[in-house]
Amino acid sequence: MTRASRLIIGIGNPSRGDDALGPRAIDRLEALNLPDVELLTDFQLQVEYLLDMEARKEVVFIDASASGEEAFQFAPVTALADQSYSSHALTPAAVLAAYERHYGQAAPPAYVLAIRGYEFELGEELSKRAALNLEAALAFLAGRLTLP
Amino acid sequence: MSFELETAAHPENLRRVAIEPLSRVEGHGKVTLLLDEYDRVQQARLHIVEFRGFEKFVQGRPFWEIPVMVQRLCGICPVSHHLAASKAMDQIVGATQLTPTAEKLRRLMHYGQILQSHALHFFHLSSPDLLFGFDSDRARRNIVGVAAAHPDIARQGVLLRKFGQEVIRVTAGKRIHGTSAIPGGVNKNLSQEERDFLLADIYPVIAWSRDAVQLIRRLFEQNLSLYTSFGRFRAHTLSLIRADGAMDLYHGGLRARDRDGHTLFDHVEYDHYWDYVFEEVKSWSYMKFPFFRSLGPEQGWYRVGPLTRVTQCDFIDTPFAERERREFLAFDEGSASGATLAYHWARMIEMLHAAEMIKELLHDDDLMGEDLVTSGTRQERGVGMIEAPRGTLIHHYRVNEDDLVVRANLIVSTTHNNQAMNEAIRAVARQYLDGRKLSEGLLNHIEVAVRAFDPCLSCATHALGKMPLIVELLDAGGVRLDAISRDN
Questions:
Q1: Is residue B124 within 8 angstroms of chain A, CB to CB?
Q2: Which CATH number is A60's domain given?
Q3: What is the pLDDT of residues B427-437, one digit of tens each?
Q4: How far apart are CA B412 and CA B321, in angstroms?
Q5: What is the ipTM of this complex?
Q6: Do B125 and A88 lie within an 8 Å CB cutoff?
């Protein structure tokens, strides 16, 4: 089976306020039915996600950010064996590093779309400010995905 | 009541060391040590900010939504919550006996969860400490270091984890937020194609699991004194047990033994667990301290989880795991069976058992049956209990006549082990930290003890920028004297 060139992983708990930004973004992207894109979502990254990254041309991680001035930030991420390596929740950089160790080759180009969130309590809805940030981030990402 | 090193006589005169939050322990875990001017440990406490808002989260919701909703409490063991809540809701709908297809599909899902969780814990969270040493170079003491020095072990860890996740995906209907377990049964069976897909990989999974048991055994053999004495303490024990005494991680009666191995109670139906287990509140911890009612809070605390299950069952009904259980119990005249680090050994025996059970179930045609749901006389109270990867998990609900949840109580395995983990860190503090200048390596000894239990509090949020480890050295007035951060 041929894999989609792009993999987009939304990270977060849908029931924890603004932590839902990642999965909400994936819900919205699913509705766009984007060609050659695979969408995944999970509460957090773990080491087996390196297997999902094989044979991709690009990987994008979407996560809520608990800090930062802007509505969102989009930045490349490279492999780094940080201390999240042995955690229940890995950083994108750590998964990339695990990929390189596992396959013995460079990981595909990867980016983090970090959307600013503010409230993370269980049972809370997305905050209004985070919802606005999500729209801005999706507008940016949709534009980028439609580029050749 | 108070335990040795739980409360210092004069804390105002002591230095305070805080490890916050614990690396590789999810949520808001923190250890505080109070040291006197001679670096003698006067107080050691593990604080875990356990989430207690789930009652509000589920109150007012229709009971049939709960098995799916509770998965959002925890990203690490959502399947365990899914199944424990489903078992509670089985009682609500009066389903006293599930159909063979429903029970076996749930069991398959559960063993997939056990396999992937134990693999993650051993290979990724704990093997760096075990393979390189507790105070080895921390730049190397991680899974990258393991991958460099032991590439086959690291690779097997990834593939075992992935296989367990695939079992969950196939049985739960989705990769995450599964929906297949419902009150009274399941909403899907296993197709022939799905069964063949999983069968294709099960034999290497069993082989790797057997290798993992041998790996932890070798580590014990090579470091016998350290491994059998590290953080050692004596505790009562609690687990589910099958009617014939076999290990059963999905269902059974309650068995409890005292510190000397004498039976306190056995084969107790868990739907009145509160007659046997009660929870105490302490002012310094958000997390409750459960204890056996018959012994009281001071004497009645206990431990749960893999070490308890492997030592407390009469046998394991899969051949490779049973052989390993016997060898584990006989090892060095039984010295490993009460060792804190033996949690890892027991965990690998359970992983092997889970792999064997998955193979056995995949050859059972009942998984492809069509009779999925049953029901009986409607009840207003439901209790579900399961042996989750980290230990006994209790879900308890009351549902009104409008089918809405009006009360909920969960006791997770990390809560059951609260006092036991505190005992382990106090033992380590006495053994390794008392009277010595603290270093990152020495403080990691504390974390090694906590990690043996694999406490999971991932109901905490994991947004970017929220997972640092800060070790702070404070004076008695709370002024920061020094700090080490593991946040890269």
A1: yes
A2: 3.40.50.1450
A3: 998 888 877 77
A4: 26
A5: 0.79
A6: yes
